[in-house]
Amino acid sequence: MKLHQSFSIFMIPFYWGNGLNRLEHQEGMPIPLDAHVWEPAKMSVEQGILFPHIQQFLQASLDERPGGRQKLHPHDYRIYALNVGAEPWKTLFSNPMSMVSREEEQAVISFQFLNDADTFLSPKLVICPNASVGVMLFAVAFWGKSPELVELMELNYRLHKTDKQLMPLYLAMEWEVENWRRRVDREEDVQKKQKGKEILQAKLEALERKRERMKALYQGISPLKTDAEGRPYWTIDQFVNLLFRGLKGTCHRFNPFRAHLFTYLQVEQDVATPELLQDFERIVRGQNRHYQVAMNEPSSYQQTFENIYIGSSVEGGGILTLTPKTHADFVNQFATSSLLPRYFWIYLMVVVQRFSLLYLIRCLTSVDDYQTSYPPVSLRLLRQFVRRLAEIKVNTYFTDVSDHTQHNRFYRFCCKQLGIADYFREIDEKMQALNEYLKQLADRKKEHLQEYLGLILALLTVVSASNDGIGLFEKLGILSEQSSFYTPATIVLIALIVLYIFYLQRKVYK
Question: Euclidean distance between the first and final Cα of the chain, in Å?
């Protein structure tokens, strides 16, 4: 089945910080960026679609006001764009890449990294300082011939893996040169064959220049690899690491082995067939046709209109549109007129919510022993955590986001599929348990403090009684001036006995 339009946005969620004990030291602090790599983005949310209070925190860092930018709150998103105005970044976006399907060695799928600076179809960095969470984004689309639906599934499936199953990625020109080489070898006419060799030589020289520029782009990321034919290749993981090199602080990916995908595809037909919906389910879940979809389970998609399907799962999301052969202007322009300036902002907000909550859960479970950890977890720190969670919930979690039914349905569906409400409940339960435990620790500390005070009073009483007793012995003549050295020794001995008793009590209560 031919695709009319398609693109895929890869999302790499990450966090910075060091668990619950460090939350107070990183609160509201964005991760430092290399200004030569990342710069404030120049884009906007479409006016009149989302509620103003939601639009405000989404695009707070994008607003240009008289006298400079407005003051940003910790929960406001910071959005940055890749500075692609100079080399070596130009090389990346001017050179399409290719991968070879493993099932059929001659099946080459070519794609390009997109660079539409004013939309999410270019590398972007979205940061939520209050949650210490960010999302790295980049987009790819097919290059060359009109793709088949099965090729889209294969492209997504191969590229979203960033672990040991990495797919080799070549310069697309490698196959152009290879095809021209075969053409020259088959040519029988002597003059045409000679002309073809000259063209082939020029192509080889151009290819080598492209290879050198690509090597310069990835210099310092990882060693260059070559296949059995001596062709250099790269991986999607290298590209991800290339983007992360612009972050100066230490950050950690939530999933080092997979990317979260959002896919848009448009098919030229009036009705969605069961086969098409099965494939859409696979795309939403980052799968290919080797996975047998169980259609009797709750599906990962819904309809908002007869010709628009929305999809969401923990692996990814997507939107499928059907375009008829006539009166299709609105649907043909759906990507630029609706999806990018509306729907994707909503989806991004839900994804950031999900990973913000996952990070908070990680913070709550990162300390094995709250009593012996350093610095120790205290009720004060827990109260700060509660306040931070409340700020995230109040400022970024909503029942509705728009006055438009389809946008609210999309938001609610994505929240349900990504478990937002369930994560809030899990955090509440964990915090209740932790709160009770810390209260018990506080009560035990109060008891120990009372014991300390009692022992100190007992010690003072013993010392006072000792002084009185020694004074009495001196009056009775039992102690003389020659034996006066016994007085401090006696006091020290009594104090040591009391301290030993205190030590034994500590051992018992501990």
Answer: 71
